[in-house]
Amino acid sequence: MTRPPLDYLLGSDGVRADATLPLTWFTLAISIIVCVIIAWLLWVGVRRARANGGAAETVGTPLEPEQGRGLSWITIGLAVSAVPLLATLIWTMAALGHVVGPPRRSGMTIDVTGHQWWWEVEYHGANPSDTFATANEIHIPIGTPVVVRLHGGDVIHSFWVPALAGKTDTIPGQQNIAWLQADRPGIYRGQCTEFCGVEHAKMGFEVVAQPANDFEHWREAQLQTAPPPATPQLIHGMQFTTFRCGLCHSIRGTDAASHYGPDLTHLMSRRTIAATTLPNNPGALAGWIQAPQGMKPGTLMPDQHLSGAELNDVLAYVETLK
Ligand SMILES: [Cu+2]
Questions:
Q1: C-alpha 109 – ligand 1 centre gap (Å)
Q2: Are residues 167 and 239 in the same domain?
Q3: Which residues surround the ion ligand 1 when the cut-off is CB under 5 Å?
Q4: pLDDT at 58
């Protein structure tokens, strides 16, 4: 979805951002105006002091009676600055009232965990078998408030989708609550905004807001387990992948069941890999599996050094994880 640049500055796409965006522009404008006025007054003052022979000569000499009148300007200055400050305070309180609490009747609750340097996303349903996990791509139905329970996997991260809502930290050992609501379909960029180590900048994610029907289709597809391998190459690929990659990854329907790294059950349904570092296409995938350290130095997935044949089998199998 491309939007005109001005729309990014002035527009928001969800109720939470709607409440904070105009306040942000207001406080920025007031701050700029105050800076300009103060700089101008300072300049005027310096010029006047120079015209009167410079400030140095007056240091230590008692004030002439008429010079004491300058004090009234301080009172006026305080009164003038109190007005925008008070307005900002009242507006801030009103905006907080809109964004802070999750709506009482939320449509959906998901769990999001910040890891160095990717996002684990977990969906739940009425039954335990309705639970599935994905990574770095959060799908939500439009027009529905979605409560996001935030967890910290290792260090403090911060969850931010600028067009939809403000920031909320993910803290190890504590659960924080954020909520998202998108007004229209779209793909909204999210980003970790609390410095969390070398690959902090490459800890992005996407929120895909869809009409309720499309979202339901996506959910149904995600609930499926991985398809059984259909050819000898795929059988070998699956065996090798679960043996080698299952140490850290989960593929539902196989023996790979570790949650150290992203769940790969529906890897090919995602638009990006490695927390938006790379587009999800066969070339990038092959490069990532073989040498992730070259693309995201420091990432907790080690280079795999597979032989050509092993890599081919792994890729062939992984590409069936739609
Ligand atoms: Cu982070």
A1: 22
A2: no
A3: 157, 192, 196, 203
A4: 58
Domain holding 159, by residue range, is 108-223
Q: Is the dihedral of CA 269, 272, 273, 279 positive or negative?
A: positive
3-state SS class at 199: coil
- pTM for the whole thing? 0.85
**264 and 173 part of one domain:** no
Distance 194 CA to ligand 1 centre (A): 6
Which residue shows structure tokens 């793909």? 187
Expressed in angstroms and rounded, the spacing between residue 189 Cα and the centre of ligand 1 is 15
* In a shared domain, residues 130 and 171: yes
Closest CA relative to residue 135, chosen from 286, 316, 301, 297:
301
Q: How far is the CA of 167 from the centre of ligand 1 (A)?
A: 12
pLDDT of 3-18, one tens digit each?
Answer: 666 666 667 788 888 8
**Domains in the chain, number:** 3
Q: What is the mean pLDDT of residues 216-243?
A: 95
**CATH classification at residue 259:** 2.60.40.420
Half-sphere exposure of residue 101, counting CA atoms within 13 Å on the CB side?
A: 6
Contacts for 16-22 with beta carbons within 8 Å, 24 or more apart?
Answer: 16/98, 16/99, 16/164, 16/165, 16/166, 16/179, 16/180, 16/181, 17/162, 17/163, 17/164, 17/165, 17/166, 18/98, 19/95, 19/98, 19/99, 20/95, 20/99, 20/166
**Selection from 93, 82, 91, 72 nearest residue 34 by Cα:** 82
Residue 160 CA to ligand 1 centre (angstroms):
10
Answer yes or no: do 38 and 86 share one domain.
yes
Residue 201 Cα to ligand 1 midpoint, Å, equals 8
Q: How far apart are CA 27 and CA 25, in angstroms?
A: 6
Report how far ligand 1's centroid is from the alpha carbon of 310 (Å). Answer: 32
